[in-house]
Amino acid sequence: MPGRQVVAAIDFGTTYSGYAYAYYSEFRSDPLKIYAYTRWSNEANLQTIKTPTTILFNKDRNFDSFGYEAEMKYEKLSAEDTHTGWRYFRRFKMKLYENEKRLRKNLKLYDDQGNHMPAVEVFGAAIRYLKDHALMQIRHRASDFHDTDIDWVLTVPAIWEDGAKQFMTLAANTAGIPTDQLMLAYEPEAAAIYCQHLTLPSSMHNGTDYVETNPMSKFLIVDLGGGTVDIAAYEMQDKGFISSLSSPSGGPWGGTVVDQEFRSFLESLFGKIVLDDMCTLHSLEMDHAIEATKRAMAKSKEDVMFKPPPVFDGINSMADVRTIRDRIVIGNNVFTKMFTTPIEKITDHVTTLLKDPILQGVKTILLVGGFAESDIIQNAMKDKFSHRYNVIIPEEAGLAILKGAVIYGQNPCVVVTRRLAFSYGISIDVPFDDTTHPVERRFIRNGKEMCENVFDVFVKKGDVVTPGVITVQRELKVPHIGATDIRVDVYKSGEDCIPTFITQCKKVGELFFALQAPSTTEQVLIKVQMSFGGTRVLVGAQEVNQPWNCVTAEFDWLM
Known about the structure:
It contains 13 helices and 33 strands. The chain is of the alpha+beta class. The chain folds into 3 domains: 6-191 and 401-410, Nucleotidyltransferase, domain 5; 256-339, no CATH class; 420-556, Substrate Binding Domain Of DNAk, Chain A, domain 1 (Sandwich). The strands form 8 sheets. Strands 14, 15, 16, 17, 21, 22, 23 and 27 form an 8-stranded mixed beta sheet that branches. Helix 6 crosses helix 13 (400-410) and helix 8 (272-281) crosses helix 9 (283-298). The longest helix has 23 residues, at 119-141. The radius of gyration is 26 Å and the shape is globular. The two termini are 31 Å apart. GO terms for molecular function: ATP binding; ATP-dependent protein folding chaperone. Pfam families: HSP70. InterPro entries: ATPase_NBD, Hsp_70_fam. Belongs to the heat shock protein 70 family.
């Protein structure tokens, strides 16, 4: 943005998080000159490209540590039996998806001890840690660098609802990132933006020399994260711009599903009591053993050894599972079955999407995200789709979203259009029509028959919208003379056929207007302008008759 020097992106994931940054001055000559911090170290001093999304607060609810440091600190406290009262949260991003139907500003998160904290404080502290870590790295290059010199980009799943996006904005504000320095980037969009800058050799897919990046070529992004899978289709435009072909879709089919299957397998192997003891007494060791086994199996077709914590004295008999001293040998076929659920969910969903006429002409399927680095997932997708499509896994698939978010922050206009996943509107009363309106919705106002609770549609599901462009305009009256504000309930529907009444929709928020100079003689008429094309819905308003009077307008999705 004008006057700023750097754009930095935070990829806040369910299982792992990280950041990257770039300088505006270098972007034109080399859009891929991106500095991603990839030197996170665990207790074994092994470096990873991201750090676990794990955070620890002390007994006074003050921030203590994040990532590997939080894991090691809490493990030490647990070993010394001094952890009681500390608050340890991991993989908490999924709580926004799980609670999206009832997400509120006062959402609380609970740790394994039953302690709770306001979710916005937990998310805010995590973002603040990553923000401060990034600033420290940036200042190593330019010591006179100021907080106001930077634009921040925060990645979010495209399938998230508006409330979750507003929540992340509030958390970023809590972390010290002002709204005017913050952009949200949809994860599959960021990946699409990054991949169009790559030259992908034929060894990465199945035959063609390069991915088509010429105008009008179409491709599908499958973002395989730890918690959710985000899928969207795009079309290349001139000069590297992209347009959305489909509304984003997906579900909770990420890598943590395999973790859950693995734990169920271990429960069958050891019994619930022994497994609970392992998870309680050796939580970090168990997590790392599971992760190491997953990674080893994902890169091999051979049996894999799992070394559990030293509290088991035997296992239940199970086919293709045996012990060698203090290790358990798991047959490849046993472990592969743990991927069955996410593979079926993902491949079935992609198959359904590709039947949509609007996606005819798609030739490429790009797999990105940390879960995309699993050979088991890659092979399943290739087995299912490579006979008709180029199935591509770019190098550093786990960093594609992060680096793409940096590029997006440099030029948000690269996304030309988006396609809406929902219809949005408000409730209005209209003159009663006995040929279309049910009699139970009829009422009398000022001697006229009216019909109540009609869904007045602002935008429709599937509409193509342009970021930064006014999508819809409305004129609304304040409820009475002298009123200082208006609150209008906002509803949405995911149905292809637009509902007639709001009772067939879901209330998702409020449209709020505050008048600086309310009239004492008439009901003020307000002109409202809304833009649904960005990653956040924007609204502006002014008085029709006295446009110089200030009117504050905003959407609130977290009532």
